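Record format v2
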Amino acid sequence: MDKKFTMHVDLDSFIPATEEEKAYMVQMRESSTFFRDGVKRLLKNRVATVSLIIIVLITLASLILPAIWPYSYENMLGVQPGKPVDSSYNNIAPFRYGETEKQRIANGEKVFPHVFGTDSAGRDYFIRVVYGTRISLAVGFFASIIVLIIGMTIGSISGYCGGAVDLVIMRIVDIIYSLPDMLMVILLASVLKLTMADALEGTALEKIGTNIISLFIVFGVLYWVSMSRLIRGQILSLKEQEYVLASRAAGSKGGWIIRKHLLPNSISVIIISTALQIPNAIFTESFLSFLGLGVNAPMPSLGSLASDALNGLSSYPYRMVIPAVVISLIVLSLNLFGDGLRDAFDPKLRN
Amino acid sequence: MNSKTAFYILKRILLAILTVWIVITVTFFVMHAVPGGPFMSEKAISPSAQAALEAKYGLDKPLFEQYITYLKDIVTKFDFGPSLKQRGRMVIDVILDGMKTSVKLGIIAAVIAGIFGIVLGAVAALRRNKIVDKIIMVITTAFVSMPSFIMGSLLLVLFAIRLGVLPANGAARGGLVLPIITLSLYPMAYITRLTRSSMLDVLGQDYIRTAKAKGVSGTKIIFGHALKNSLIPVITYFGPMLAYIVTGSLVVERIFAVPGIGRAFVSSMTNRDYPMIMGTTIVLAVLIVVMNLVSDILYKVVDPRINLE
């Protein structure tokens, strides 16, 4: 009998682990990227998710509906070529019809209902609201892109170069920042409207209208300052990092470092503030439209629809309420989504 | 006040003066860049009459000379020239006339916004995550994301047309009630949220715990320690609130037909009354810049811990 000593190790107890057992022991989860982490956090935030769904739905509706809707935003239903103007089409209440439409219904034809009725010029109000939403969203989006591009360029140059360049740019930013922005917007919009009308005639830009273009110019001139301040701050702290030093030691130029290292690392701040800029721009556009400085007629925007509704307010209050609700819904959900985005992608910013 | 604070205040005053000067300059040159000049929209007038008009208003002089004259008149005499559309009236008189109503409107709205905002914010913070807090937060979120012209129109529909309890015309008796409510709701909601978050911040501080540990009563902690310190961030909102009320009054005065400076501004834009546009822009801008200056300085003076840069 080969009896072992108690201290003797029994080698039979130490067999190699099978692959299955090895896999079971690994405590690591699948690696996740920064972006995927952020999306996960964002989707967990119920308010932000609901807001996102609302924004997507409104956007899709405003893009698709005008194409399939039987009425158009500028078509006055009472005006037919060669016939006298049929005023029974003006100011139709929701789900009511004009005279010729009533005849067609009596003949057994199907007529698409005017969901929100028509306005004082006999245009289907529902499609005007949808189209106005599209305009407002587009203006908000493009204005934010303009602000983003200008603010990002100037902010990163100012932050990276530092010294005298930074000092001069930041003084300019200070001054623009202290200007009363809304007054300047109104002033510039009202003047650009008059100045540009002739210059644009016949060009492709004419269709967009002087007011929208002046709105974009105004945004480009005045609203980049807060974006550039933000990005400058980011760049200032990032450019002291070791990888920037390493990149510079390897011979990279300033522009390369900004584009390849500094901006990608501040991307979350950039996205968040751009997202929060959109409702701001929609707000401003509707404000200007309300004062008569917005889109050119017959094109509607939510602000101009509300402004037009002011004249018939006592008889047709729903014409004010509908664009009002849409605007508030868009601004509210964009703001809440922007907040959620900030919480998800930049927990440091939270205060 | 130490020398650092004094230096900061001096710097801010200089920046404010610079800003006002830039506003005047931008306004002047932008208005003069409009093609055709102020008399183009008039009915056809003979060239000699046009020349006479231009000579009368000094429009025949070189642009820079006009600018210097304009600047000098403003600084020395508060003179913005005559209004083109309201014959025989000076711009400054029209502005001062409108100011009487607008200032009343703005001040009452600001006071209401301040009082209700602070009270609601404090209540929300003290009842954190309770049902009261949630209701207050939902309502203020809704108010913050509603443009003033929409708020005004909805109030008009509801109270003046549907219920008929308040007049829709701002010039009528009691007509300022709806405009005041309209103007105060947004700043009120904003102040509520500001007070709530800063109050929550303060309530978590060590000195509140110390006070509690010493056996100070609840009310005394709230009013003596917490509320006072949590109002500091609210002071910073003072300037932006005034800016909001000034620009908000443009639409509110339009909606409710209030005879104030906002309506004068908007109508001067539609009928191209150039000296009026310039005058009102400059006066409103000065108002906003000065209020921002005051609130900034107040902020630094109230809380010396704040870093001056």
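The mean pLDDT of chain A is 82.
Residues 116 and 337 of chain A are 29 Å apart (CA to CA).
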